Amino acid sequence: MIILTQVLLHYMLIVHVFSLVHIDSPLSHLQFFLLMISTVFMAAAGYVFNDVQDVKIDSINKDNKRIIGKEISEQTGMKLSRWFLALSLIPASYLSIQLNMLQLILIHLFIAFGLWYYSTDLKKQVLSGNLLISLFTAFTIAIVWLYHLVSLHNNPSVMIEGRRIIPFINVLVLAISFFAFFISFIREIVKDMEDIEGDKTTDAQTFPVVFGIGKSKTMVLLLSVVMIISTIYAAYYSYSIQLMKLSVYLLIAVLIPLVYLIMNLYKSKNKEDFGDLSTLAKIIMIAGILSIQIFYINY
Description:
Blueprint: H1 2-20, H2 29-53, H3 55-61, H4 74-98, H5 104-120, H6 128-153, H7 156-161, H8 166-194, H9 196-201, H10 207-240, H11 244-265, H12 271-298
Helix pairs in contact: 1-2, 1-6, 1-12, 2-4, 2-5, 4-5, 5-6, 6-8, 8-10, 8-12, 10-11, 11-12
């Protein structure tokens, strides 16, 4: 998912828009590849470490899908997590040096710390872990544009040439990041409803455990309504700038599944139902990401 998102964003949005004003991409192919590899390995490190921490919970919530503690020992999982972290920080360090901004490595270190803190403590607190993971999901999108802006900072002449399109790309990246944050937040809460039994046994203070399934559904409903309103506005904005294909795509591929999610939300009662909602949220996320391709075709 991360690779798909970052490739589409880089090549079909940022590089594409720059090419329309006859400017080469600020970030080279190699630099983008290293950034993508760094992001993917950071996510892998976080996932593996989280699975090591969740052996007890996962044995209740999804024992049939569990790998750590079954196919791979917890000790091996920890080693893998450390290796993935190293493989993430090495290209990130190289990029920060090459782009003459050593502060960039601090971002990656902060994310590593955030993933560690999430797995050991934050995910057991009401909404805190959900918010952090949703922010990190959105940042996997924003970080690509951030690195482009840093590269532009090193090339003032290109920055001046591209000043007309930078605000436009800012809006597009912000909109996609906003979408990723909210759909990820929805999915996080739905997953907590799905895993409520295992979370209760470990005294995890997730939103469904503390406030119950009913209020959790209301939270998902409110977030979904925000997304529906935002999607309608995005479709209208796309229509207003003559991006008809993108407008129609957003209404069909994103808006209709969101309405369907709400329709099925209050019918959901058991673990399987919430699992289906979580899958639907993931499908909506993929549909939103693929809108970048429609933008490329239409713009």
